[in-house]
Specification:
The complex is a heterodimer. By secondary structure, chain A is mostly helical. Chain A is built from eleven helices and two strands; from the N terminus they run H-H-H-H-E-E-H-H-H-H-H-H-H. A two-stranded antiparallel ribbon of chain A has the order 1-2. Chain B has a domain of 241 residues. In chain B, the strands form two sheets. Chain B has a two-stranded antiparallel sheet with strand order 1-4. Chain B has a two-stranded antiparallel sheet with strand order 2-3. In chain B, helix 3 packs parallel to helix 14 and helix 4 packs across helix 14. In chain B, 49% of the residues are buried. The chains are: A mainly alpha, B mainly alpha. At the A-B interface, helix 4, helix 9 and helix 11 of A face helix 1, helix 2, helix 7, helix 13 and helix 15 of B.
Chain lengths: 287, 352
């Protein structure tokens, strides 16, 4: 029983990280209308920045503040330079471009940091165990991850629902031709949304570092899972991504406990079921 | 959503409004139509050039196999507008199928290739039915997910696939022809293997051209341009896409089978890791024709074999070339040769 509860909580942690990536993908898809294939690689870059910063300062606190800003700037720069020329063209081209970008980022990191992974020092302040009363005591850091993810998700939701900028973003997702006709400088919103998506991926990178360490391919597997989350939750659905991310995290975690060889397959089986019986996803709007 | 797609071709900033239309025409204009059956001749020329210039026989045969695989993928990417990120799945499946047949059933090359292609065709029917529930980005993500699923199964099903170690020691296959039986040993007699592969690829390549020129192939391209309109014309668009998915899967299965016969080995590496590589080959070579991806495969493998010797991170160069390709030459190398160069020459003559 204890084991079950612990495993459930661990599943929530890994699910929470998936949620961050899936939300970024979803937001970018909503406004920019392409799937950012380089999302996993950008997450990896964020994790590497964390690793260097944390090694220099001894903890991840500075990285948690600095990395999202740096990643947002990187995202904005990428959008302005190489993604912008894709807008008039086929959706497929933007997908292919970010696919190529993935190669460049991964191999670039290999050249700079080497193929072997790096470690991220554990966050000193949180180096203790918390007894929640149920299950075995958990490292405090894992709870901290859940709290940060909750704050980021809540912040994003408030940003979209309560601010004027968020209002324009939502309107743009619905009909960007109309938004442009109303005189909105739509380009800026695209840059902004891409930067936000990349920054959120960066936050996920920061949070992952101390748990698994960093390595060049770390973004590849999680990107595929994030795709599955987006599909299962429903493309463009904010809470769908949150729900599906947590669900898949928990499902994988529980399968690891009871039938570990199937753990890798579970998300895909779920995805096939959802695509067969509910093609627009769990919470996606039917078209 | 779908209505916006038609307008999205011109939704860039007003200043560049003319450019996108030109791009569309350039990537998928009348260019390839001039080169329908001529592509077959081009293939023969390329195969002969490869045969006489590439010193490493296994690399030369690999070029043909990869070329076939990439050309099949281009049915989906270039002709169908469906970008599959999981085309390693049919390739690996074909490899495992052929390998298992050769190991446990018979060493007949025909049987191994037949099983690889037909079984993958059937599997494609099921995979395609799910992947094509939604098109565009959904399709890309779903194909990638299926390839990952296949990878996990191949990794875990130790008793059948050999898991991490793969299937090694696959026996040399024998090719039954009326009157003679030839041993296809890529190590001892690479020339026979090369010629055999070249002939198989030639036949399949011709079939692919036939498919793109058939009424169904034309409908496929119409769907890429405007699915709503194609459906409005009364075509069952999903069915056409599914048939194409099965054709591309069958071709990739066959290519995987050939690759297994060439290397006498099937395993996680490299079979499952090539989804991206084959896509790069397609884009590098150009997606407006079937010959383009073939050229892309040859060039990619040449780059790999020369660069990887001197530069450990040669994939950085490949990635950068790929990005530049998508940004500046969406028509790829072959498009550059057939469309951009003649344009430059003409312009040169005009000013001279």
């Amino acid at each position: 029983m204890d084991q079950l509860v612990s495993q459930l909580l661990l599943g929530l942690v890994s699910g929470a990280l998936l949620v961050l990536l899936a939300l970024g993908l979803n937001l970018i898809f909503g406004l920019l209308e392409f799937i950012n294939f380089s999302h996993g690689a950008l997450y990896m870059v964020g994790a590497y920045l964390t690793s260097y910063l944390a090694t220099a300062t001894g903890s991840i606190w500075l990285a948690l503040l600095v990395v999202p800003v740096v990643m947002a700037a990187l995202g904005a720069a990428l959008e302005r330079t190489i993604i912008r020329p894709m807008y008039g063209r086929d959706q497929v081209d933007a997908l292919l471009l970010t696919f190529g970008l993935t190669y460049v980022l991964i191999e670039g990191v290999r050249v700079i940091a080497g193929s072997g992974g790096r470690r991220v020092p554990s966050p000193g302040l949180l180096d203790f165990q918390v007894d929640l009363g149920i299950g075995r005591p958990l490292p405090a850091y894992l709870l901290f991850v859940v709290v940060v993810v909750g704050l980021v998700v809540g912040g994003l939701w408030l940003f979209l629902q309560r601010t004027n900028v968020g209002l324009v973003v939502r309107a743009g997702i619905r009909d960007h031709v109309m938004i442009r006709a109303l005189g909105v400088r739509f380009d800026r919103y695209r840059t902004l949304v891409f930067a936000i998506g990349v920054a959120v991926a960066g936050i996920a990178g920061v949070l992952t570092g101390p748990i698994t360490g960093v390595y060049p391919e770390m973004g590849a597997d999680i990107l595929i899972l994030a795709f599955v989350v987006v599909v299962v939750g429903g493309m463009g659905s904010f809470w769908g991504a949150v729900l599906a991310g947590l669900l898949i995290g928990v499902l994988v975690s529980l399968t690891t406990l009871y039938a570990s060889i199937y753990a890798g397959i579970v998300p895909f089986v779920l995805m096939i079921l959802v695509m067969t019986f509910r093609p627009h996803g769990l919470l996606g709007a039917a078209t | 959503m779908t209505d916006l797609r038609a307008t999205s071709a011109s939704d860039g900033t007003p200043a560049r409004a003319g450019a996108p239309a030109a791009t569309v025409a350039r990537t998928r204009g009348a260019g390839p139509a001039r080169w329908t059956w001529g592509q077959l001749a081009l293939y023969v020329v390329l195969a002969v050039v490869v045969m006489f210039t590439v010193p490493n026989p296994s690399l030369a045969i690999g070029m043909l196999v990869y070329g076939l695989w990439a050309a099949g993928l281009n049915l989906l990417v270039g002709y169908g507008g469906l970008v599959s990120f999981g085309h390693a799945l049919p390739f690996a499946w074909g490899g495992y199928a052929a390998g298992l047949v050769l190991l446990h059933v018979s060493t007949s090359a025909w049987l191994a290739m037949g099983v690889a292609a037909v079984s993958m065709g059937l599997l494609s029917l099921a995979v395609g039915a799910v992947c094509l529930r939604r098109t565009e980005v959904y399709f890309s993500m779903l194909t990638l997910a299926f390839a990952q699923l296949g990878f996990f199964i191949a990794l875990q099903w130790n008793s059948l696939t050999g898991g991490d170690d793969g299937l090694s020691g696959i026996p040399v296959s024998s090719l039954w022809l009326p009157g003679v039986t030839i041993e296809l040993n890529a190590l001892r007699d690479p020339l026979t293997f090369f010629v055999f592969t070249a002939v198989v690829v030639f036949v399949v390549f011709a079939a692919l051209i036939l498919y793109t020129e058939s009424p169904m192939g034309r409908v496929l391209q119409a769907i890429r341009e405007n699915e709503e309109r194609a459906r409005g014309c009364g075509y069952s668009t999903r069915l056409v896409q599914l048939v194409t998915f099965v054709v591309a899967g069958t071709v990739a299965g066959l290519a995987g089978g050939l690759f297994a016969m060439l290397n006498n080995f099937v395993g996680l590496q490299p079979y499952w890791l090539l989804s991206g590589v084959v896509l790069i080959m397609v884009i590098l070579g150009g997606r407006a024709s079937l010959f383009g991806p073939f050229l892309g495969a040859v060039v990619y493998l040449l780059l790999e074999s020369t660069l990887s010797r001197s530069f450990a991170s040669w994939q950085l160069i490949v990635g950068a070339v790929f990005v530049v390709c998508v940004l500046a030459f969406p028509q790829g190398l072959w498009g550059l040769v057939t469309q951009t160069l003649p344009g430059l020459v003409r312009r040169g003559r005009g000013t001279a």
